[in-house]
Amino acid sequence: MNVHEYQAKQIFAEYGVPTPKGIMAETVDAAVEAAKELGGPIWVVKAQIHAGGRGLGGGVKLAKSLDEVRELADEILGMTLVTHQTGPEGKLVQKLYIEDGADIKDEFYLSVILDRKLEMPLIMASTEGGMNIEDVAENTPEKIITVPVDPTIGFQGFHGRELAFGLGITDKGEQKNIITFAQKLYKLYMDKDAEMIEINPLVRTGSGEFLALDGKMGFDNSALYRQPEIAAMRDLSEEDPDEVEAAKYGLSYVALDGEIGCMVNGAGLAMGTMDTINHMGGTPANFLDVGGSANAETVSKGFEIILKNPNVKAIFVNIFGGIVRCDRIANGIIEATKITDVNVPVVVRLDGTNAPEAAEILKNANISNLIVAEDLGDGAAKAVAAAKGEI
Amino acid sequence: MSILVNKDTKVIVQGFTGKEGSFHAEQCIDYGTNIVGGVTPNKGGQVHLGKPVFNTVSEAVKETGATVSMIFVPPAFVGDAVMEAAEAGIELAVIITEGAPVKDMQAAKAYATKHGMKTIGPNCPGIITAEECKIGIMPGMIFKKGNVGLISKSGTLTYEGANQVCNVGYGITTAVGIGGDPIIGLSYKQILPMFEADPDTECIVMIGEIGGDLEIQAAKMIKEQITKPVVAFIAGQTAPKGKTMGHAGAIVSGSAGTAKEKMEALEAAGVKVVVSPAEIGKAVKEVLSK
Questions:
Q1: A116/B210 touch (CB, cutoff 8 Å), yes or no
Q2: Which residues pair with B287 in a beta bridge?
Q3: Which residue intervals of chain A are DSSP H helices?
Q4: Active site includes A390?
Q5: CB-CB: which of B99, B154, B252 is closest to A266?
Q6: Would the pTM count as exceeding 0.90?
Q7: What is the residue range of B83's domain?
Q8: Which residues of A touch B248 (CB under 8 A)?
C-alpha cells in the first residue's frame, strides 16, 4: 500500500525526520489559508498523487505571493497529471500539499528498501539528488552508495559513517545531522513495516541541516493488520475502482487493452494464460485471479467485472483444480451464467480434481455459448478463434 | 530416489488442529505421508486425526523424532512458528501460510539459517515426492512417479507443469513450490544441485515469473553446474509494466526482472525455454527422447 507525500511526511515528523513545514489542502481556499498559516515568503504548491515525476509533469510549482498560491492551486487542483509512472491516462489531482520553501544548498538521494538477495534492509544514497535515480544507476553506478543493515544489530555508528563519508560530507556537524537522519529513517522503516521509503531530493540547507523535500512510502500489505494508523491512510481514489471492487470478493483484477477476458486460478497460471493467448495471436483483456476458493459467487462476480469492459469479445475460464473440485466450479459457472447475462462465447477449461465429472456437467447444461476445451493450449486456441468470430 | 523428502520422512504439523491444518494434514496422511504428530499450544495430550498433539515443537521432536514441519499457523504467527521449529532442531520447515509479514519472515529466515534449518515458502503449495510423501496443499493424484524434477514459484503452474509431464508419459521425482514472496526459503539455486545429484531425476522443469532476479541467478548456476536438461517457462511476458512509486527495487537487484530478460539468460545457459506453459510437456518429451 502506498501513501501520499503529505502522509509520509506526517510519519517522518512523528519520528523526528526533518521536513519543511506543510499543510494538505483539498480546495483552493484551503490552500491559500494553509499558505497564510505557514507564513511564507515562498511556498511550494504540490500535487498529491501516488506517482513519481510530478515536478516534470507540472504538478509542483513555486509561489512567491499568496495570489500566486491561489493561481497555482487553482491550476493544479483538478488537473490530470501525466508522469512516467502514471501511464498515459494520467491521474486526477484531488489534493495539494502547500509547503514552506526551503533554503537549498544541494540535493541528495536517500532510500531504504528490502534487499531481496541479502534479505535485509538496505540504505541507498547518492549525491545525485533530484534526478531520475534509475538513470544515475545506469550511467554512473559509482555514485550510488549502498549500506545494508542487519536487523539483528540494527543501525550502528559504522552504517552512518559509511553513508556520510560515501556522500562526501566532511563537516562534522553535517555528518552528525545526516547520520541521525538515516538512523531515524531506518527506525521508522522497521517500526512501520514499510516496504520502501524514498526521499528524492534530500536537501542540504545553507546551515548544514538535512531536510526531506519529498517522501514516498510503500507498506507491506501483509502487515497492515498491525499498523492500523497506516491502514487508515489508504486513499481508495488513487486506486482503480474495478480492482478495488474485485478485491472485495477476493479477486485480483487488472484491466488490459485486449479482447479476451480471462478468469484463472492462481497468479502464475493467470499470467501463463495471458502469455498463451498472446502467443496464439490473441490479446488478453485482463488479468483475473479468482484465488484458491473460487465458488459460484466469485465466478459470477468475475464474469460481471470482465463484461464491464466493452472490448471483451470472448472469455476464457482456465481453472486447474487442486483442492478445489472442478465439478463445483462447473456448477458455479452454470449458476453464474444465470445470474449474469453472459453475451459472448465462453471457453472453459477445467482440469485437475474431478475434471471428467465437470466436463459432463457442462455438456449437459446445454448453454449455447459455452465451449469446452481439453487443455490449456486447446482452450487458448479456441478463445482466440471465438474472439475473431471463427467459432 | 528423490530430493529432500521421501516415504520415511517424519513430519509434524504446526497449526495441526486448525481448519486448514486439519484438512490438509488429513489429505497428506491419505496420500501416505508419514505424519507423526502435530503442535497446537494448549492442546497437548490430545489425539487428532489419530496422531498425538503436542504443546511445543521441541516436545514433538523429542517424542516423535520428526525432522520436517509443515506450517499452517495464521500469518501473524508464522515468524514465531518458524523460529520455534529451528530452535527445536527441525531440519526442514515447509511454510504454507499466505500473507506473512515480510519483516517477520526476514527475522525467521535469518534465525533458521543460523540453526541450519532449511525452509520452503511461505505462501507456497509445498513439496511432494511422487507416490511417497506430500507435504503441502497440492492435489496428490496428478503427481505420477517418474524422472522429472520440478521447481516453481507459482502453485497452479506447478500443477499444470506436473500434469503435462505425466500426460506425455513421464512422471515426477520431486516437485517443489518455492513461493513468490519477497523473502523465501529454498530457491532455484539451492534446489537445482539437489536434482543434479539425484540419480532418478533425468530432467528438470523450472517455472518462474516476472520480478526479482532468482531466475537470473539460476541461469548462471545452470550454466556452471547443471548437466541435466532443463526446461523453463517464465510467466508474465505479456504482463503490463507495474505502476510503481519508487525505483529502488530494480536498482537493488540490478535487473528489471522482465520475462524477456530472464528467458534470454536461461536460453544462454542452454535451457529449453518455452513461450507458453501449454508447451512444457512437449518440451520435456523432446529433451528426454534425445
A1: no
A2: none
A3: 5-14, 28-38, 66-76, 133-139, 157-166, 172-191, 228-231, 241-248, 267-279, 296-307, 326-339, 355-365, 376-387
A4: no
A5: B154
A6: yes
A7: 11-120
A8: 111, 113, 124, 133, 196, 198
- Out of B94, B120, B146, pick the residue that ends a domain: B120
Interchain CB contact of B8 with A (< 8 Å): no
Q: Under DSSP, is residue B266 helix (H, G, I), strand (E, B) or coil?
A: helix
Decide which of A101, A125, A155 is a domain's last residue.
A101
B254 phi and psi, to 5 degrees?
70, 15
B141–A137 CB contact, under 8 Å: no
Residue A263 and residue A284 in one domain: yes
- If you write DSSP's letter for every residue of A342-388 in order, what string do you get? --S-EEEEEEETTHHHHHHHHHHHT-TTEEE-SSHHHHHHHHHHHHT
CA A336-A341-A347 angle, to 5 degrees, is: 65
Contacts of residue B23 in chain A, CB cutoff 8 Å? 323
Mutating which of A119, A131, A188, A290 best tests the B interface, going by the most B Cβ atoms within 10 A? A119
Residues B146 and B246 in one domain: yes
Domain end position, chosen among A49, A71, A101: A101
Note whether B253 contacts A: Cβ–Cβ < 8 A: yes
Show Cβ contacts of residue A170 under 8 Å, excluding neighbours closer than 6 positions.
Answer: none
Domain boundary among B120, B153, B185: B120
For A376, half-sphere exposure in the C-beta direction (CA atoms, 13 angstrom radius) is: 32
Nearest-by-Cβ selection for B157 from A190, A198, A268: A268
Q: Is A166 helix (H, G, I), strand (E, B) or coil?
A: helix
Chain A contact for B210 (CB, 8 A cutoff): yes
For the domain that residue B199 is a member of, what is the CATH number?
3.40.50.261
What one-character DSSP code corresponds to residue A267?
Answer: H
Is A256 touching B (CB cutoff 8 A)? yes
Cell of A65: 505571493
ipTM (interface predicted TM): 0.91
The verdict on a CB contact (< 8 Å) between A352 and B277 is: no
The rounded distance, in Å, linking the Cα atoms of A159 and A126 is 15
Whether residue A274 and residue B239 make contact (CB cut-off 8 A), yes or no, is: yes
Q: Kindly report the CATH number assigned to the domain that includes residue A60.
A: 3.30.1490.20
Is A6 part of the annotated catalytic residue set? no
Query: Residue A192 is part of which domain span?
Result: 1-20+103-239
Tens-binned pLDDT, residue by residue, of chain A (391 aa): 999 999 999 999 999 999 999 999 999 999 999 999 999 899 999 999 988 888 888 999 999 999 999 999 999 999 999 987 787 888 999 999 999 999 999 999 999 999 988 999 999 999 999 888 888 888 888 999 999 999 999 999 999 999 999 999 999 999 999 999 999 999 999 999 999 999 999 999 999 999 999 999 999 999 999 999 999 999 998 888 888 888 888 888 888 889 999 999 888 899 999 999 999 999 999 999 987 667 777 888 889 999 999 999 999 999 998 767 788 888 888 888 888 888 899 999 999 878 888 888 988 888 888 999 989 999 999 999 999 998 8
CATH number at residue A112: 3.30.470.20
Same structural domain, A142 and A15: yes
- Tell me whether residues A223 and B250 touch, CB distance under 8 A: no
